[in-house]
Structure formats: C-alpha cells, structure tokens
Amino acid sequence: MDIKEQYTGSILVIGDEILSGRTQDTNSNHIAKKMTEIGINISDIRVIPDNKEIIIESINELRKKTDYLFTTGGIGPTHDDITAESVAFAFGVEININQEAFDILKDYYDGIGSTFNEARQRMARIPAGATLIDNPISKAPGFKLENVFVFAGIPKIMIAMLENSIKYLEKGKIVHSKSIKVNAVEGDIAKTLRLLDSEESELKIGSYPFFNSDQDFGVNVVLKSVNKEKLEKSVDKFKTFLNENSMSYSN
Amino acid sequence: MDIKEQYTGSILVIGDEILSGRTQDTNSNHIAKKMTEIGINISDIRVIPDNKEIIIESINELRKKTDYLFTTGGIGPTHDDITAESVAFAFGVEININQEAFDILKDYYDGIGSTFNEARQRMARIPAGATLIDNPISKAPGFKLENVFVFAGIPKIMIAMLENSIKYLEKGKIVHSKSIKVNAVEGDIAKTLRLLDSEESELKIGSYPFFNSDQDFGVNVVLKSVNKEKLEKSVDKFKTFLNENSMSYSN
Fold it and tell me: Would the CB atoms of B34 and A49 count as touching at under 8 Å?
C-alpha cells in the first residue's frame, strides 16, 4: 500500500570520508526526520565518492526521480570540493563567481582579518540561476537550483542550511504514527502484524526488533497512516491482541 | 588518481525506518571501516525502502558493479522482511526452507521453550545455493550467495555476521593513511593540498573541516597511499609547509 498525497525526496551524501568509514554520516538522518515531519517521503539515500562523473550522473538520476534532491558535502574551498561545478554540469548551466556570494564572503573574511584568497573565492562559484541559501556559521552559502538543494557537509552548517530551505518546500499530507514497544520477540507478533497490514489499505506497519541484552529485547512496532481515525482503530486492535496473549507493552 | 589492486564493495541498507529518519543507520559505517582495513574500497552505499522490486533492482545493479555487495536488514520473521526472497529473485534461484537453518532455529526455540511457529520458520527460507552465515546472538542465520552477503539489520547481530564473513573475502592492498589535525581554516591550506595532490599520483588527499565552536575549528587532513614511503614523503612536505607558515597542527 502507498500513502498518497505525499511529496518525495532523495538525499545524496557526497564524500570519500563516509565511504571509507572515517566519518559517520548523520546528515541524512537529520534531513530524513525533518522531511517526515512535513510530509515529504525520502525514498533514496545514496553515498557516493568525490568523483565528478558519478556526482553528475547521480544528481541527474535523483532530481528526475523525486520531487526534491538534497545533497550534502563538497562545497568547501579545497580540490576535492566539486559539488557546485557538478551541479552546474548536470543542469547544463554555467558556473561563475556569484556577486552576492562573493560580497558575503569578502565582508566575512575582511571582518575577521583573513585573506579572501583564491581558494576561498572558489566558494563564491555558484551555478547560474541558483538561489543562495544562507550559512549563518561560516558564511559560504549553499544554494538551490530548481528542485536540487546543495548543502555543506559539516553537520552544524548543514542543519542551518536545511532550516533556511524549508520555506521552499511543498508540504505533503502528514503521516500520523504510533509506536508501541512490545516485550516479545518478532516471531510471536508477526502473524498479527501481517493480518493488520492486509486489513487496512491506508496503514503501514513497521516492525523493528531491538536486542540490548538477553534480558532486554523486544520489538518496536510502528503503525502509520495519513488517516488518524483509522490509525487509532488499528492501534486498538493490536493492543487487544497483545492483551489477549498476555504480552506486555509500553507506548 | 586511483589506488590500484583494491577490491570494491557496495552496501545496501534495506529499511523504511532509516528513510523515515526513525533509525540512524550505523551498520554501513561499521562495514565501511572494516572493509577499508582489509583493502576493500566501498564505492556505493544506498538506503532503499522495504519494496521487493526496488530491492531486486538494486541488488542486481550493485552485485555486478562491485566485487562484493553487503545488504543489511529485512531478514526477520515479519511481513516486511523480504530481503531473502528478493535475493533469490535477483539471482533467479528458488527459495525454500533450508534444512540446516531450520535445524538451527528449531534447536534454539526448543531450547528456550518458545514455539517454532510459522513466522519463525520463514527465517529458515534461504535461496538455493547460498552458504549460511552464523548468527551467534539470535540464531537466525544470514547468508552469502556468490558475491552477495545478506546480514541482519540489528547492529549487534550485523557485526557478528560481518566478522563471520571476513574469511570469504579477498583482501586488497592495504591503504596506508596519515591524519593531521591542522588549526587553520581550509582556505589557508587548499592551494598546498592541491599541489601535493597533483605532484604524487599514488597519493589521495582528503580535507575534512570541523567546526565545534568559534574557538575550536580546523581541518583534518588525511593523506592516503598504498605506497608507504611516498606517503611519508608527502606528509613531510605538508608539515614543512605548515611550519613555514606558522600553522599549528597535531597528529
């Protein structure tokens, strides 16, 4: 079953440091949570290397596949920061120094008494037609080109840019959800979940076992629906089953 | 530049709970780290939903693209656990109850006094031709079919399955790496990094800015090479530059 009237999104995490395991990506989790809150359904997350051809190919695939594409990483001043030029290439537009970005950066570096050198000026290169996204922390802006949002990789900056981008997004129908922590193993509730799932077309059920120790294990069951009333009915049914089978649970 | 004589790998994280942001994926970081240690270069990480068609398509793409494919998630007993049957479909092989897996699970549930019910028996369904991967924690095995390794999503179990799979992997040439924490902003070292990068074909340089506060920021520079001697030479050159420009750093 599908939950209708939702927008879709994808996330492209650009960076060798994620692929080598050096850095744990937390940006995509942050974006995904935020999008879920506003009814945008993330269908793809990809991590790819700092490679221009791969970045271009991935951008062109995902910007057509989903309503919104969010990229993180690769917009700093060094040789491996090639996201902006890859976005320009993907859209077939030019990339030059953007005067607005240049002025923001020049003011910033002048203000802190640092040289606005060639490497830093690279960060003012923005694809033609893009709208800048404010970076309140280190100033070098992100940007939005059509449905593609280009964010920094540093989590603190990424989060700020994401906040500054919410205004551009169409919000979908909110998915209501209810989480129930069941003190049982998945195998004991699987049949019932399958039944609930087949009975109600607007319902989506996730079952997430956890296993902290021999004493502390169970399943987090998450029921979701855009229809709040039907969701509550299904939750009641499930709790009735748990009670009838003497399984303990908590909300 | 490419680092030669390395094997490649990809990771497919299967699960709606990651895409909704409910769960932070840590499995792919763990796999990536481990593979880097043994000279297998992860080139793709993807997160996809619990959707059979998408799982099949992704498996078929990635198992051909890279030497090894590791999947996580979707091998439990519930209705949304569809990874095993998707793998079977992707390879065009049958999936039936595997006697070895059945016996392991039956022994386990008999031993703890639980019913080995229909839902649990699903976990004994393994694609034809696959080799089981031991799960010392909750017993339901993972499996390996040709170059595809199918792991559980629960991190503790995933880690154990990964450990039990290392013996099947060809190890590549180890990449040596050296990390230097520079107390400067990226823009001040970008030109030098670019120069170092162009001078030495076997060298790969990553530059990872961090920004904890106005007082605590800088760049972690990571130099990598399969050639240890050349790596050390480049590290020395970089440190000389830092010293000449009075930039402080630590290893």
Answer: no
